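Example 4.3 (complexes with small molecules)
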Amino acid sequence: MHAMASVKPETCGAGAAAQPDALLRLKFCGLDFASPIVLLSGCVGFGEEYTRIEGFSNRDAGAIVLKGTTGKPRLGNPPHRIYETPAGMLNAIGLQNPGVEHVVRNILPQLDFSETRFIANVSGSTIEEYVEVTRRFDASPIDAIEINISCPNVKEGGVAFGNYPDMSAQVVAACRRVTQKPLITKLSPNQTDIRENARRCIEAGSDALAVINTVMGMAIDVETRRPFIGNLQGGLSGPAIKPIALLKVHQVYEVARPHGVPIIGQGGITTATDALEFIMAGATAIGVGTALFYEPMACKSINAGIAEYLKAQGLDNLLQLVGTLRTGRDIEDSPLCG
Ligand SMILES: Cc1cc2nc3c(=O)[nH]c(=O)nc-3n(C[C@H](O)[C@H](O)[C@H](O)COP(=O)(O)O)c2cc1C
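Answer. The structure with flavin mononucleotide bound is encoded below.
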């Protein structure tokens, strides 16, 4: 996987870029999205990074999630931080970011809110830190707040908040108390029962769910017998995790649908067909992350492909497709293995 797009000599987005097809417009947690595409946290810097690439426009995305932000600045993990795998990549960036105060004061004022919706991505090592960062973003122009519960909880010896429904719900409830903005909880696939976790996060006040974050993995250099990733382990993303992500979206949809809680489906989406699969499994919006590293124009072809499919199916609204996966008892009852 490698990026080949040319870089514009000047900065800033392509102002004259065509808008996505009107069929793709939707409301997500009360926000107007021009497209179901959400550019994912950690893959687009703070929303300004890809606007330097010829032909790229933030207007092609319904929303952009900024890099994970903590209370204080973080330098991140030692190298190597990324490693390419078959059909995917491992990353252990370690939440490098300049801290919430810098993001709110210096980065948000530079973003063009007329182009798309911007969503903060909140991280923390304690519940108090999640609350502090959420409160700061609440008092900013940001459109919505996503909480990344995959961070290690220092008080509990480093276990991830997101791996345990009780801890996940505590983080969500605490953040809910300090913001009226739409709150999205990003669920980890690295747990036993994502349905239970989703249910608890909804009860704790989450307005939407992002499904899934990366799948933990590792890679070893047999010459040195050392892990390739400086942090030993990293999060696997890209097409390699798509089947896992799709099943998790389907499972979470069963829990979220009765509450009217929408899902941002994500994990390996690269094409319009990938996106359609996630929408049929129950996603209202779809995230694109790793694909941008080797296909920065992916949004344009995904938007065009979804619009074309809707027209061919005689549908005039994307929401008519959400969760329309056809299953029957014959499928649900079949053996799980073999
Ligand atoms: C380099 C990199 C950095 C990431 N940083 C964050 C982050 O700061 N916060 C977060 O919630 N997710 C982060 N993610 C996870 C992505 O937002 C996304 O959920 C995941 O990669 C699955 O989607 P994809 O396969 O389309 O990339 C990161 C992913 C990558 C590849």
